[in-house]
UniProtKB/TrEMBL annotation, chain A:
Keywords: Membrane, NAD, Transmembrane, Transmembrane helix. Belongs to the complex I subunit 1 family. The chain crosses the membrane at residues 55-78, 90-111, 123-143, 163-183, 216-235, 241-263, 275-295. It is found in: Cell membrane; Membrane. One of its GO terms (biological process) is aerobic respiration. InterPro entries: NADH_UbQ_OxRdtase_su1/FPO (IPR001694). GO terms for molecular function: NADH dehydrogenase activity. One of its GO terms (cellular component) is plasma membrane. This is NADH dehydrogenase subunit H. It is a multi-pass membrane protein.
From TrEMBL, chain B:
It holds the Pfam family Oxidored_q3. Its main location: membrane. NDH-1 shuttles electrons from NADH, via FMN and iron-sulfur (Fe-S) centers, to quinones in the respiratory chain. Couples the redox reaction to proton translocation (for every two electrons transferred, four hydrogen ions are translocated across the cytoplasmic membrane), and thus conserves the redox energy in a proton gradient. It comes from Salegentibacter echinorum. The keyword Ion transport does not apply. Signal peptide: none annotated. It is found in: Cell membrane. One of its GO terms (cellular component) is plasma membrane. This is NADH-quinone oxidoreductase subunit J.
Length: 296, 180
């Protein structure tokens, strides 16, 4: 019963994220949009580039959505409900994110076209740059929990959430999450209006559907990550734990869209420079900060 | 009943290990059989990720996940460096990926034989009867890295860093001051 509720909760959350994205980005309430978009992509003709790399062209969308779903598996929904209670859960989350990059490099290379290739390599630079702060922010939360198990990470926040305990880590994780989901202002890999869709430019029909669905799931999994690493996971008054997890996750996803609306797209060189010269040293400082707090 | 169950589980685990091992070898072979640099790098990634899965089957959770994670970034970086340096990155010019065939086959046979000899004649001490918990494995690994094997890891890390800086420096455009 519990698992059924969680499964339905995940589907409803993904639906809600799509509807809220339409509301916050395009300013219209379109409750039927997810179904309509799904149906239209599903029946759309699959136009394939002539000289494509067939293996990568077929593998990239599947790999993309698979790792986005796998990343969700390690997060607990309540005190005793977790799909994969891995001792190295936090590290596994990172591993899954690394394969998002592999999928997009494949997607960029496969169509044998200019825009996707630029998009793919751009995303690679972006992900490598921003996976440093994200890994180090996770390390700091793991230091506090003294375990990489996600249950332990959530339990370590009883009394004081990590957003207060290590605010620098939270800010870094938040910015890096935007970069990893290539949402505005970090939407350089598919940059509408500049690269005409970038990595996704040569994908149509069901493959594009898988990519777009995978991206929504990726936004969901990174929001879940922020909820568990920094916002106390299932902790909250009155309501059951899993309701809090879903509420916090959807709120974090909404905040992604709001931030994206407020900021213009960053330049690619600035994006990389800020990560290597500012975010990475700050992440190291955050580790030092948490270390000092733990020793006090 | 209990004994039979363990034997069956061990056979299943061994079969999965053999299948994964063959998969890793197949992808390693693909690295040299394709003419596209990106395909080659990603074949190597597949081979390495399968090695990570073998760790997972052997219940070395931390090492397995770490291997799977690290290789994704490393092989993608390698792909872009291969693109930068090779004359025929897309494989459109039918460039042969393999060269110095006799020497490389000879070297790999000797290296393989040396590894087999080292594995066969090493003193493995007592083999653990039970797999330690993942937390204990992490602790033991940390102790190993920070004590006995520290020099090896630090040297390897520094060498890789130096190699990265050198290759980036050589990739920078050469500016002749007289032309300014």
């Amino acid at each position: 019963m519990m698992w059924m509720i969680i499964g339905i909760g995940c589907l409803v959350s993904i639906y809600a994220i799509v509807v809220l994205e339409r509301r916050l980005v395009y300013k219209t309430w379109e409750f039927g949009y997810p179904v309509a978009a799904f149906a239209s992509y599903f029946i759309q003709e699959n136009v394939k580039p002539r000289k494509r790399d067939k293996t990568f062209y077929e593998t990239a969308p599947i790999l993309f959505i698979t790792v986005a779903v796998l990343a969700i598996g390690i997060f607990p929904w309540a005190e005793s409900s977790v799909i994969a209670n891995m001792a190295t859960g936090a590290l596994f989350f990172n591993a899954a994110l690394a394969y998002i990059m592999v999928a997009l490099v494949m997607a960029g290379w496969a169509p044998n076209a200019v825009y996707p290739m630029i998009g793919g390599w751009r995303f690679m630079g972006q992900l490598i740059a921003y996976s440093m702060p994200i890994v180090m922010a996770i390390t700091a939360t793991v230091m506090r929990a003294e375990s990489m198990n996600m249950m332990a990470v959530v339990e370590s926040q009883t009394g004081l959430w990590n957003i207060v305990y290590q605010p620098v880590g939270f800010l870094l994780f938040y910015a890096a999450s935007l970069a990893l989901t290539f949402l505005p202002p970090f939407d350089l890999p598919n940059a509408p209006g500049e690269l005409e869709g970038g990595v996704f430019a040569e994908f149509t029909g069901t493959r594009l559907l898988i990519f777009r669905l995978g991206r929504i799931i990726l936004i969901f999994s990174l929001s879940l990550g922020i909820t568990h690493f920094f916002l106390g996971g299932w902790a909250g008054p009155f309501l059951p734990g899993y309701v809090w997890v879903f509420l916090k996750t959807i709120l974090v996803a909404c905040s992604f869209f709001v931030v994206g609306n407020l900021l213009p797209r960053f330049r690619h060189d600035h994006t990389l420079e800020w990560s290597w010269k500012l975010a990475t040293p700050l992440a190291l400082f955050n580790i030092l900060w948490v270390g000092i707090l733990l020793l006090l | 009943m209990g004994g039979n169950f363990i034997i069956v589980m061990n056979i299943i685990r061994l079969s999965i290990l053999i299948i994964l091992g063959l998969g890793a070898i197949w992808f390693a072979w693909r690295v040299f059989m394709t003419s596209s640099m990106v395909r080659s790098a990603l074949s190597l990634l597949a081979s390495m990720a399968i090695l990570g899965m073998m760790f997972l089957v052997m219940e070395a959770e931390f090492l397995g996940v770490l291997q799977i994670m690290m290789m994704a970034t490393e092989m993608s970086i390698m792909a872009i460096f291969m693109m930068m340096y090779m004359m025929d990155p897309g494989g459109m010019g039918n460039m042969d990926m393999s060269h110095q065939k006799k020497l490389s086959i000879g070297t790999s046979l000797v290296a393989g034989a040396m590894v087999i000899v080292a594995v066969s004649f090493s003193n493995w001490e007592t083999i653990a009867t039970e797999v330690p918990t993942p937390a204990k494995q992490n602790y033991d690994l940390g102790m190993e890295l920070m004590k006995r094997s520290m020099m090896i890891f630090e040297t390897a890390g520094t060498s890789i860093l130096v190699a990265m800086i050198v290759s980036t420096a050589t990739a920078l455009p050469f500016k002749n001051k007289k032309d300014d």
